[in-house]
Design a protein that fits this description.
Layout (H helix, E strand, L loop, with lengths): L5 H27 L1 H21 L12 H7 L6 E6 L4 E2 L6 H12 L5 E8 L2 E12 L2 E10 L1 H24 L1 H26 L14 H49 L8 H31 L7 E4 H13 L6 E6 L3 E4 L1 H18 L3 E9 L3 E8 L6 H5 L16 H11 L3 E6 L4 E8 L4
Parallel strand pairs: 7-9
Antiparallel strand pairs: 1-2, 1-5, 3-4, 4-5, 6-8, 9-10, 10-12, 11-12
Helix pairs in contact: 1-5, 1-6, 6-7, 7-8, 8-12, 9-10, 10-12
């Protein structure tokens, strides 16, 4: 069904609903309306008795048909009457088989109320009848009035025919709302399909605009957001390629020029040792950038596989990383407030994440770096790392954790991106906020247990 045109699918749904409703009605009506029809029959019988009694002279047909033909001959609303007394005198005579008639007389004589309703199956046909006791100076008479079930059956058949006719017309005419609804839905969908096809071909200059507030309108807005992000990502990718090319070309050029100079017997830094040291430093920078690029690719792969769950002390890992960076900036005061917290996660990844974060703090801090590690009431762990350096511009803050968006003193724009990716892989979040003096990074992660 999903491969059919939308108009056919909508019509099939309409048709299925109509069929289900029709079948449900045909199943429910006989049960729900049976009591109503039976009461209607008894009401007709009693009205017939009232009409019969209101006449000045009670008159009966002279020749009632035998009971075998009575149901077929009578009108569906015809009420038959029999009158008899305690002496079993019957008026008119012999309309019913003797055993049936004797049973009716026996029921009437044992009846406690003046009016009683009954039903009986006679020769496979259902009869509804009412026996009314009539007192007179000459004794009690019993008026037995009856109707066959053909009246109720006729009502049911008529109702079924009308219902079937209505449902049939609705079934046939359901094409009209199906086509209208399909056109109403498919027009914006076709519009979106064309735009998505153009976006797939990287022709994303034209905005996706549909003036609707329903699900289709929200879908159009989401596609337009995706289009803008793809444009932005494409721009970032182009800039990234240029940045990567430039960042890799510079150390390679320095290494080659210094090596060539040394081969020619020239020492750009005055002596061999100093010149080779420059080559080593540039090679280290090149190695770090390559390592960061490869690590980003590794993290992308880890999105689809299970991570290792090492058990370790998070406070001890923070201190270990911090000690390595204290050597770089001996002028900085490190203030720590760390709780003893055991954590289960990828030890290597958290080491890289904290190293990149500490590297950022060391690069921007003036005099102080603060680190806190605390458990939260909602079974989470909060890590906060701050420095007293300059505030981050609003424009830079929006892209701080994206690839190839270096900050004011950034080198390659991958460190914080890697940190954010690692934290996300561990089910956490990272955010940054400017303080009155400096900047604070906040990491919130679930308190995983081994």
């Amino acid at each position: 069904m999903k491969n059919l045109p939308l108009a056919i699918q909508i019509w099939l749904i309409f048709a299925l609903l109509i069929i289900v409703v029709t079948v449900a009605l045909l199943l429910i009506i006989p049960f729900s309306l049976d009591r109503f029809f039976i009461n209607e029959i008894y009401a007709n019988i009693e009205n017939g008795q009232d009409t019969f009694q209101s006449g000045e002279i009670w008159q009966f047909p002279r020749n009632l048909p035998p009971i075998v033909n009575d149901e077929a001959d009578q009108n569906i609303r015809t009420v038959r009457h029999l009158l008899f007394n305690n002496d079993k005198q019957i008026f008119p005579p012999n309309p019913l088989p003797k055993p049936v008639l004797e049973n009716f007389i026996k029921i009437a004589q044992s009846q406690e109320m003046d009016l009683q309703r009954y039903q009986e199956v006679i020769r496979g046909n259902r009869m509804f009848y009412v026996i009314r006791r009539i007192s007179s100076p000459t004794g009690n008479f019993y008026l037995l009035s009856y109707m066959w079930d053909s009246y109720r059956q006729s009502l049911v058949r008529t109702l079924f025919r009308q219902l079937s006719l209505v449902m049939g017309m609705v079934f046939i005419l359901s094409w009209i709302p199906a086509i209208i609804l399909a056109q109403y839905l498919t027009k914006p969908l076709v519009f979106l399909e064309k735009h998505v096809s153009q976006i797939a071909k990287q022709n994303w200059e034209e905005p996706v605009v549909i003036q609707r507030e329903d699900e289709i309108g929200r879908l159009a807005k989401s596609i337009d957001v995706l289009r803008n992000r793809l444009i932005r990502q494409n721009e970032i990718q182009q800039n990234s390629l240029q940045n990567i090319s430039h960042a890799l070309k510079t150390p390679v050029m320095v290494i080659r020029s210094y090596a060539q100079s040394i081969l020619d017997g020239i020492f750009p830094k005055g002596n061999l040792e100093a010149s080779v040291l420059v080559i080593d430093q540039e090679a280290e920078r090149l190695q770090k950038r390559n390592r960061d690029l490869l690590y980003l690719t590794k993290l992308d792969v880890l999105n689809t596989i299970n991570q290792s769950q090492d058990q370790y002390r998070l406070d001890e890992l923070i201190i270990d990383v911090m000690n390595r960076f204290q050597i770089r900036r001996k002028d900085i005061k490190w203030i720590t407030d760390l709780e003893d917290i055991s954590y289960s996660g990828d030890y290597e990844q958290w080491t890289v994440a904290l190293e990149n974060l500490m590297d950022n703090q060391v690069r921007y801090a003036h005099n102080t770096i603060t680190i806190s590690l605390k458990t939260q009431p909602n079974s989470q762990i909060l890590i906060q790392v701050g420095n007293d350096g300059p505030s981050i511009e609003e424009k830079t803050m929006k892209t701080l954790f994206e690839k190839f968006h270096p900050g004011m003193k950034g080198e390659f724009g991958l460190g914080l991106s890697i940190t954010a990716r690692i934290i996300k892989l561990h089910g956490g979040t990272i955010s940054v906020a400017n303080q009155e003096k400096g900047v604070t990074f906040s990491i919130l992660i679930p308190a995983q247990k081994s």
